[in-house]
């Protein structure tokens, strides 16, 4: 492998493509900095119970813990099999970045759920499975423990990044790459198919079982995640690499700015699709299971009474 020459990086489309990801990065950082300055004026109420209490009444948190452990083990096994078969070379791809990030989400979720289960079992209401009453009691008696700590904040950020990223990777793979990538260098195997599907399936199932806050502000972290991948790829190609893992990242074409701009724009509908799925979850399950499902609105109402 050899680095791309200076003439390659002095092409006009390189500067245009650089602006296409530098501008969103700057805007996203500005939004995040401004939000940090206004932390004392939160727009939504978020507590740590949102990350480990199921959104189904009478469902013990241990079931959510078991699911997260199972998802973590399954994803870790698939990453292991991928590295064994293809080597660490696979981490040049955005899919593996995202897959590993979802795995980290389930690792954090497993730890937070395990800690939450311990808190839940020490509360007398848990013996009767009264989740909604436990939310009020926990907020009243353990207010300091219910605030988001470092791990909870990190888990929430990773969740919002992963939500958009899994939609992006799976849609691009199945709808754009797979139909046009043929030949001996590319073969669709069971492992590759699973890598481009179970990440979204596991994350959606986790969203069905729990009720982490999902806001449009999270798209700023999603944008930074994708821009970090572009910076990573460009840095490798400046130093030691000449082959692009995705054909639309190639800069040696006058169409490169259109590809980069298109990929930048697609972040909005991908993130929006997950937002629609979360909204549909609340509406559909609230109608089908009014006595069993605890929607995000109902949880918020419980918190206002505390």
Description:
By secondary structure, this protein is an all-alpha fold. It has a domain at 48-222 and 268-304. 69% of the residues lie in helices and 0% in strands. It contains 13 helices and no strands. It has helices at residues 6-9, 12-37, 61-86, 94-121, 131-141, 143-146, 150-180, 190-195, 198-209, 219-239, 256-265, 267-288, 296-304. α2 (12-37) runs antiparallel to α10. The radius of gyration is 22 Å and the shape is globular. It starts with 5 loop residues before the first helix and ends with a helix. The model has no long low-confidence stretch (mean pLDDT 86).
Please supply descriptive tags for the structure shown above.
single chain; 306 residues; mainly alpha; 69% helix; globular
């Amino acid at each position: 492998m050899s680095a791309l020459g200076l003439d390659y990086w002095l092409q006009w489309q390189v500067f245009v493509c650089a602006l296409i990801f530098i501008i969103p990065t700057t805007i996203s950082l500005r939004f995040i900095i401004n939000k940090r300055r206004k932390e004392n004026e939160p727009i939504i109420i978020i507590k740590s119970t949102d990350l480990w209490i199921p959104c189904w009444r009478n469902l013990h948190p241990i079931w959510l813990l078991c699911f997260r452990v199972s998802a973590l083990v399954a994803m870790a096994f698939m990453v292991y099999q991928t590295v064994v078969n293809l080597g660490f070379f696979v981490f040049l791809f955005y899919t593996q970045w995202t897959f590993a990030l979802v795995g980290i989400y389930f690792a954090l979720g497993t730890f937070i759920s395990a800690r939450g289960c311990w808190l839940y079992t020490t509360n007398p209401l848990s013996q009767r499975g009264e989740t909604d009453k436990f939310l009020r009691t926990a907020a009243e008696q353990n207010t300091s423990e219910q605030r988001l700590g470092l791990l909870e904040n990190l888990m929430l950020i990773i969740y919002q990044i992963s939500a958009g990223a899994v939609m992006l990777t799976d849609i691009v793979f199945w709808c754009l790459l797979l139909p046009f990538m043929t030949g001996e260098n590319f073969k669709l195997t069971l492992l590759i198919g699973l890598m481009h599907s179970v990440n979204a399936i596991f994350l959606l199932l986790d969203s069905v079982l729990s009720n982490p806050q999902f806001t449009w502000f999270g798209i700023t972290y999603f944008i930074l995640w994708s821009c970090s991948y572009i910076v990573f790829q460009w840095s490798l190609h400046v130093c030691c690499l000449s082959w692009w893992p995705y054909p639309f990242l190639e800069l040696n074409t006058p169409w490169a700015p259109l590809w980069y701009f298109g990929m930048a724009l697609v972040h909005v509908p991908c993130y929006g699709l997950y937002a629609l799925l979360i909204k549909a979850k609340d509406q559909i399950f609230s109608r089908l299971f009014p006595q069993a499902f605890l929607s995000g609105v109902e949880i918020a109402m419980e918190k206002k009474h505390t």
